[in-house]
Amino acid sequence: MSDVLFIELTQESTGSPVSFKEDGGRFDESQTIKLLVDTKYIVTLTCKEELKSPDMLLNGQAIFMDTKPAPPDGDPNLKVYEGRFSTEEVGKTKKDNRDVIALQIPLNLSLMVALQCKYYTAKKKKSADWGETLKNVVVNYKIEDGIEGRKAVVSTIRCRKVMPR
């Protein structure tokens, strides 16, 4: 049985969603999320499971995840969590390279999610904004039994774009 988790990323100062682009097969993943260095972001998780801890790890840093109400037009069984993180200590990504945002999400079993990204400086803001506007990242995962016990395993990760009105 597969479950799903949604991840949204927005700039804290503007409330604007981040952008992403299709990279094809040049890198480990086919889609890259675009972020600015020295910027504060809001990460929103939406899932059916409750978090077992209020802290999620993002690149090893604890992010406090505050519980938010489910959207009025959505599934009342969904749980929504919001946290903040900063890219102040992050350097820009070198040309023709990609970085990873590593999330450790404390569901019933800890779920590790690696999102491919590229960090841009403020001088390259136009490049960071170019591409599709990210609605959310859809993470499909399942629980597997193995030699070391049960674990949550990501099956697919896909960026969804904001659809024009």
Overall spatial form: globular
Largest sheet descriptor: 12 strands, mixed
Helix content: under 10%
Tell me the span between the first and last alpha carbons: 34 Å
Number of helices: 1
Assembly classification? single chain
Please trace the helix and strand order, writing H or E for each element.
Answer: EEEEEEEEEEHEE
Compute the CA-based radius of gyration.
16 Å
Mean pLDDT: 93
Strand-pairing-aware structural class? mainly beta
Ranges where pLDDT stays below 50 over 5 or more residues in a row are none
Written account of the structure:
With 165 residues, the chain is mainly β. 3% of the residues lie in helices and 57% in strands. It contains one helix and twelve strands, in the order E-E-E-E-E-E-E-E-E-E-H-E-E. Strands 1, 2, 3, 4, 5, 6, 7, 8, 9, 10, 11 and 12 form a twelve-stranded mixed sheet that branches. It is globular.
Summary of the model, kept short:
It contains one helix and twelve strands, in the order E-E-E-E-E-E-E-E-E-E-H-E-E. It is mainly beta and 165 residues long.
Break the fold down into its secondary structure elements and pairings:
Blueprint: E1 2-11, E2 19-22, E3 31-36, E4 40-47, E5 55-58, E6 61-64, E7 66-68, E8 79-86, E9 99-106, E10 110-120, H1 125-129, E11 132-146, E12 149-161
Parallel strand pairs: 3-10
Antiparallel strand pairs: 1-4, 1-11, 2-3, 2-11, 4-8, 5-6, 5-9, 7-8, 9-10, 11-12
